[in-house]
Batch of 2 targets.
Target 1
Amino acid sequence: MDGFEATAKDIEQLASRATDETIIRKALKNGANPIVDRAKRNATQVMRRRTGRLVNSTRDEYNPKEKTQVIGWSGEGFYGRFHEYGYRPRPGIRLRRGDTLTWKNSRKNPQGRTVQNPHLRPAYEAEKDNAGRNIVQTLQKELGGT
């Protein structure tokens, strides 16, 4: 069993004892913080930063129905998904009267699509162990002991 699986098992055992939703929420928030911070650092390093909207809109949010912490983009950073996964725009999109946007192939971009610049997925992979430890530590502290 690797470190992440062991941490997940600890979280499962501690979470079964946590009945107060504020404790669960606090633990999930503390677990999401290192991932969000790394994603913001990745976004500034991987992509050209013109306005800072993508970095400022990267955040985490609690989902009370599923009791999960969702990490993603909000508001003006909706295009973060395009950078994360890449996309192929539809040809023939009209911009203004008579103007048509055409997507040409080039040596850099042979398929005429936006290349992926992932920043959330690498942040998760790099920080998942720290996030798990933060969750375990918060639950242990709030529940008193081991």
Target 2
Amino acid sequence: MALPLGSCVSGFKRCINHISILNSIDDVSQSLPLYLQISERLTREIAAGRLADGTRLPPERDMAVQEGISIGTLRKALSELEERGLLERRHGSGNYVRARAATGIYSFLRLELPDGGGLPTAETLSVKVQNGPFERSHRIRRLRYLDGNAVALEEIHLDAACAEPLETPLPEALYRHYAEAFGLVIERVEDRVSMARVPDWVPASFSMAADDVSGHVARQAWAATGELVEVSETWFDPEKARYIARDSQGI
């Protein structure tokens, strides 16, 4: 039996509510298409357990009308979820959530809102070429958002030998951009989580000040070729975000 519209699609409603916030973020033209924003948001809601396995979503037209989007946009989002194995579409019956290891555009992003999920977006603060940690590196500094809330700072060092030319403005989904623009597929990452002080380049729009103690993630990322191609640091506000790692495989 389907749950009432308001209860079984709270994650969907949170997704739509976030979309209006995008207009306040710089470089909005580099945001994901609307249908991918919806599918990504729902993917993260499923991964966080906010949309349970077996939940039957309301009729598509009801969902589209309530949220003020076209039926075509909604169906593209649901088709994306179906391709990921996260939705079963039964003719004459409805759409059912299939909770499993959720993989999406932001599957390597381990930060979530305190109650789970949250659609990631990003604002690029600066991009420059420098020496180190690779012979030549693209240094990218960004402010990361979840559902429009600034939750983290990010400094990325990308091996310039693998990504030339790196043109700006940069899209929000960098790993997707690496693959599409340079054929550079990030296959494996290693994160080390600790606490660290916020750097002095923190923008005023972030909730923490320079030298405040924040959550910290030091990452190394390897390409499908086995080469180390990116190292990064992320400083996150522990009041606004959590680092979450999930593994659906048994021991």
